[in-house]
Every structure is written in C-alpha cells, then in structure tokens.
Specification:
CATH topology of one domain: Rossmann fold
Helix content: 25-40%
CATH architecture of one domain: 3-Layer(aba) Sandwich
Radius of gyration: 18 Å
Strand content: 15-25%
Oligomer: single chain
Order of helices and strands: EEEHEEHHHHEHEHEEH
Length: about 250
C-alpha cells in the first residue's frame, strides 16, 4: 500500500496517439487519461489494441505520432512496474529471489525484510525457499504480484495478470491486488467485466478499428467490491452488451 506521506502518484495523459499495424490503423488520434492514484481498467475484444496501448504507455512501443506523459512531466518508464499475462518467474531462482529480481538486475542489495513482509501479506511467506516449478498457478501469480509490489513504483501496468487462474483463486487475487495497489496509478487490461468492476475506479471499453475508448463507467464504493453486489451484476450486463457492440447502454 502506498505511503500517504510520499510524493503523490502522477496522472498519465495520452494525446493524439496514432499507430498502424500492418496496413490497418490501430489508433488514430487517440486521447486517454489515467487518474492519479486510482485504478483504471480497460476492457475490449481480443486484437483491439489493449496490450499495445499498455506497451505504448510503458515506453516499450513507440507510436507513429502522439505523446504520453505524466502530469508532473517526469519519466514514466523509470517509475512504472509491469505485471504481464505470464508470471515470468525465473525457474532456477527461489521464490524470494524472484520477488527480489528487480534489485538483482539493477545490481542493488535486495531488501530481504521487505520481501518477506510482502510475501507474508500475500500468503506465500512460507514458500520463499521453493522453486517456481513446485508452486500452484495461484501461488506463482502471487509471487509475480509480490515482485511487482516490491518495486514500489507509483505507476503499475498490468496485462491480464489473473486470466489463467480458476475463479476462486482469481477472486482472491483481485482483492489482494486492490488492497495492495491502493494509492498507486494503475492501468489494468482485462477481458473480465466483473474483475474490472471489482477493482477499478474507472472502467473503459475499447472498441473498433481504429480503436476508440468509451467514456468511463465509475462503480460506487471503494475496491475491492463484493462479488455478490447486485449492482455490479447489473453493470456487468451493461459492459457485456457494450463489448458485444450494442449501442443501448447506460450506467
């Protein structure tokens, strides 16, 4: 969880993003805003450009035209943590060493005490000595989340990080992520409307070619929201209609 005494996390603005994929225009003059210190979720059909947009924000891909910047004009790349669809654990390193991987890459001494606290918070505290091959899928994803949080970056970019999990484990991971990422500027790409409704402050749908991003839907209450919240189920139906291409949708 973010330290309330630290520098506030920035918002992120995308202006006039234009990018082609082969002969097709993926984005054409796309504008998008990520609210500071909140979780923005992005839904859309496969191939619409969600992951590409995430890579553009992270600085891993460059648009043909346009600008991505933080509200405080500082670099995004040096202040962002990434959690992808794959857990990306190195099989020859222990759980704890995987959690501390960022420090190792930077040639810094790892903060073992902090790593142990994070692992305990995510209920993997007893697994620090084990290798990834001995873990369940849910345990591996918690290690990946601990590694992401270990970076303690004000910006967190997540690309369908829970999509491979069973429903029960996924619901638990959503709640853990919502608590742990409080106060950070987060963009979560997901195919799951209910996941977005549980943990997002702002939920957008991306559709079309070139892609457009619809205005945000903003559920009531603070994340993580309860799975049996009937209002969320109604909003889930709204999002599914929008994803299916219906023009008749209201929040």
């Amino acid at each position: 969880m973010a330290d309330p005494t630290s520098t506030p996390p920035p918002g992120i603005d995308l202006r006039d993003i234009t990018l082609g994929y082969g002969d097709a225009p993926l984005f054409a003059g796309l504008d998008f805003h990520l609210a500071p210190g909140q979780c923005t979720c992005l839904l859309g059909p496969s191939g619409v450009g969600k992951s590409t947009l995430l890579r553009v924000i992270a600085g891993l891909s460059s648009p043909d035209r346009g600008d991505v910047h933080c509200s405080d004009r500082q670099s995004i790349k040096d202040r962002a943590a990434w959690m992808g669809q794959s857990d990306g654990l190195l099989p020859w390193l222990s759980v704890e060493d995987n959690v501390c991987l960022g420090a190792r890459f930077r040639g810094e001494p790892p903060d073992r005490e902090r790593a142990e606290r994070l692992m305990k918070d995510l209920d993997i505290g007893a697994l620090g000595h084990r290798l990834p091959a001995t873990l369940s899928g849910g345990q591996r994803q918690r290690v990946a989340l601990a590694r992401t949080l270990m970076e303690d970056r004000p910006i967190v970019l997540m690309d369908e990080p829970f999509s491979a999990l069973d429903a029960i484990t996924r619901a638990r991971m959503q709640a853990l992520a919502a608590h742990s990422l409080t106060g950070k500027t987060v963009l979560l790409v997901t195919h799951d409307p209910l996941e977005a409704l549980r943990i997002g402050h702002h939920i957008h749908v991306m559709i079309g070619m070139p892609a457009i991003i619809e205005p945000a839907l903003r559920p009531d209450g603070a994340p993580p929201r309860a799975l049996d919240n009937r209002r969320l189920l109604d909003l889930q139906a709204t999002l599914l209609k929008r994803l299916a291409g219906s023009k008749d949708w209201t929040a």
